[in-house]
């Protein structure tokens, strides 16, 4: 495809690339996952301004292309086809802090790590996910599960207003209070939790919170940087009973604390490379002494647990580096798919069975050693409290009373392995959700990490799904934007 193939090329006054259809799509377009990247897009556009986004949308309409807006390139369920206009927002990366309003306004291409560091330098934080390489906007469009869920709620709860470009090419400000009409408020609410494919978010304003409000301890006697208490215990497979009992004993943990159980294999280059392991990690967004004195924190130092450990480590992590421990997971390439669920209750036997099958499946496929399952336990009280407010209830988040998020990452090299692991994850998630079914609660997931269809039935209530369909019909009726929620 060449420039002469397209109409209205005068609109492309900003950086763009028209790929050769014969080029290797992954080599041309580096993404976290090569899944569903079967061919190069029709055009890669890198706008510098809001008006460039308007022009890109007009160009796509003239040429019958489907617009896919992206920030961090981490969406694993996003198909890229020869009809895709790949709108790379990386140059919309401004960050502006308003200390008086305790708000920050970010461009649509800002990455999580950049926002964390910028705010920490000014003495603030906001709700963000645990990967520095992920786009901030893409995260809250899917709700945004964070390490501060227990303190300030989900990412979507911290979103105040958005500046967007619609499929019609209009620039609008939408928000819970700044919108001028009911339809704009309805659009804003859907963007806060299930917002993919409704428009292009060129900037977002979010609440920020003083780091001083957390009472964090300094990193060390020589380094006054506020830091997060972190305790990590790595154990062998035969410690599964102790690990599961320790994890479930503190569900939910204290509000400043996160408890994470991971089924994993030792990373390349380590003494445990490729070997199945169990990882228990706890972080505490408060004074280190409070973490150490809490029953949950003390449980990770119990001699009966530590004696089984392959490795233990307690550190104070400087706040700007809070996500550094998972940097290896940000590597691009390979066939990766994410699976998720929001859980209210887990049975110990289901966890043990899931681990046994995880070990067996990753033993079976030598190209899948980086496949992992993580169980994130947090206190859901704040999220449920926000849901009781008019603003919180309007946002498209469900299952707010559930304090466990399960996220599985299928990571392999061969399509046959990917297919087999998909069956494993589907069956494993169904087994882990049985305790909720026994309690009369249906399965819930969240759109940041789910396989978009047909799992939409587990995403939102029937009424909210109907409203989401209505909003797509109004704002994206001709399908200019890729819509992952289409019924």
Describe the structure concisely.
By secondary structure, the chain is α+β, with helices and mostly antiparallel strands. It has 16 helices and 19 strands. Helix 7 packs across helix 11 and helix 11 packs antiparallel against helix 14.
* Gross geometry: globular
CATH architecture identity of the domain at 227-457 = 3-Layer(aba) Sandwich
C-alpha Rg (nearest Å): 22 Å
Q: Mean pLDDT, nearest integer? A: 92
CATH topology of the domain at 227-457: Vanillyl-alcohol Oxidase, Chain A, domain 3
Q: Helix/strand-derived class? A: alpha+beta
Largest sheet: 8 strands, antiparallel
Strand segment tally: 19
> In the CATH hierarchy, what is the class of the domain at 227-457?
Alpha Beta
Percent of residues in β-strands: 15-25%
Helix content: 25-40%
Distance between the termini: 32 Å
What is the number of helical segments per DSSP (H or I, 4+ residues)?
A: 16
Low-confidence stretches: none
Provide an overview of this structure.
This protein has 487 residues and is α+β, with helices and mostly antiparallel strands. Among the domains are: 3-88, Uridine Diphospho-n-acetylenolpyruvylglucosamine Reductase, domain 2; 227-457, Vanillyl-alcohol Oxidase, Chain A, domain 3, CATH 3.40.462.20. Helices cover 29% and strands 23% of the residues. It is built from 16 helices and 19 strands. It has helices spanning 25-28, 50-62, 112-121, 136-141, 149-152, 182-194, 240-249, 288-293, 295-299, 303-306, 348-364, 381-387, 390-394, 415-432, 434-438, 462-475; strands at residues 16-17, 43-45, 66-70, 84-88, 95-98, 103-107, 124-125, 159-165, 171-175, 200-207, 209-210, 217-218, 226-235, 257-265, 276-284, 311-318, 335-343, 372-377, 404-412. The strands form 4 sheets. Strands 12, 13, 14, 15, 16, 17, 18 and 19 form an 8-stranded antiparallel β-sheet that branches. It has a 5-stranded antiparallel β-sheet with strand order 5-6-10-8-9. It has a 4-stranded mixed β-sheet with strand order 1-2-4-3, covered by helices on one side. A hairpin with a 4-residue loop joins strand 5 (95-98) and strand 6 (103-107). It is globular and about 70 Å long. The protein starts with 15 loop residues before the first strand and ends in a 12-residue tail after the last helix. The model has no long low-confidence stretch (mean pLDDT 92).
């Amino acid at each position: 495809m060449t420039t002469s193939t397209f109409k209205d090329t005068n609109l492309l006054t900003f950086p763009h690339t028209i790929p050769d259809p014969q080029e290797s799509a992954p080599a041309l377009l580096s993404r976290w996952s090569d899944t569903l990247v079967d061919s190069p897009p029709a055009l890669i556009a890198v706008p510098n301004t809001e008006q460039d986004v308007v022009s890109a949308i007009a160009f796509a309409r003239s040429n019958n292309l489907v617009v896919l807006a992206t920030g961090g390139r981490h969406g694993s369920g996003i198909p890229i086809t020869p009809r895709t206009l790949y709108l790379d927002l990386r140059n919309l990366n401004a960050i502006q802090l308003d200390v008086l309003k305790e708000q920050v306004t970010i461009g649509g291409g800002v990455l999580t790590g950049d926002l964390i560091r910028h705010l920490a330098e000014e003495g603030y934080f906001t709700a963000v996910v645990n990967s520095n390489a992920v786009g901030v906007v893409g995260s809250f469009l899917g709700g945004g599960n964070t390490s501060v869920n227990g303190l300030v709620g989900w990412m979507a709860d911290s979103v105040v207003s958005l500046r967007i470009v619609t499929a019609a090419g209009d620039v609008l400000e939408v928000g819970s209070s700044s919108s001028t009409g009911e339809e704009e408020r309805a659009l804003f609410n859907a963007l806060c939790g299930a917002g993919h494919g409704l428009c292009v978010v060129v900037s977002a304003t979010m609440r920020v919170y003083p780091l001083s409000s957390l009472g964090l301890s300094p990193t060390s006697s020589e380094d006054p940087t506020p830091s997060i208490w972190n305790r990590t215990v790595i154990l062998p497979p035969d410690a599964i009973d102790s690990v599961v009992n320790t994890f479930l004993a503190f569900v939910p943990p204290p509000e400043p604390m996160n408890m994470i159980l991971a089924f994993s294999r030792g990373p390349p280059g380590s003494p445990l490379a490729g070997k199945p392991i169990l990882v228990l990690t706890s972080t505490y967004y408060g004074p280190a002494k409070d973490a150490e004195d809490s029953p949950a924190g003390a449980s990770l130092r119990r001699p009966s647990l530590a004696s089984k450990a392959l490795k233990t480590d307690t550190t104070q992590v400087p706040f700007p580096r809070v996500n550094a421990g998972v940097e290896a997971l940000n590597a691009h390439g390979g066939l990766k798919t994410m699976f998720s669920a929001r859980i209210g209750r887990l049975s110990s036997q289901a966890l043990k069975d899931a681990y046994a099958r995880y070990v067996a499946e990753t033993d079976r496929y030598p190209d899948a050693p980086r496949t992992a399952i993580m169980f994130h336990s947090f206190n859901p009280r704040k999220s449920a409290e926000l849901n009781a407010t008019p603003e919180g209830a309007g946002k498209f988040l469900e299952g707010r009373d559930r304090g466990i998020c399960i996220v599985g990452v299928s990571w392999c090299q061969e399509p046959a392995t990917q297919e087999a692991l998909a069956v494993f994850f589907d069956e494993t998630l169904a087994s882990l959700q049985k305790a909720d079914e026994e309690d009369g609660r249906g399965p819930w997931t969240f759109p940041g990490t789910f396989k978009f269809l047909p799992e939409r039935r587990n995403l939102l209530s029937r009424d909210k799904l109907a409203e989401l369909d209505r909003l797509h019909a109004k704002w994206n009726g001709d399908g200019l934007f890729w819509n992952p929620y289409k019924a």
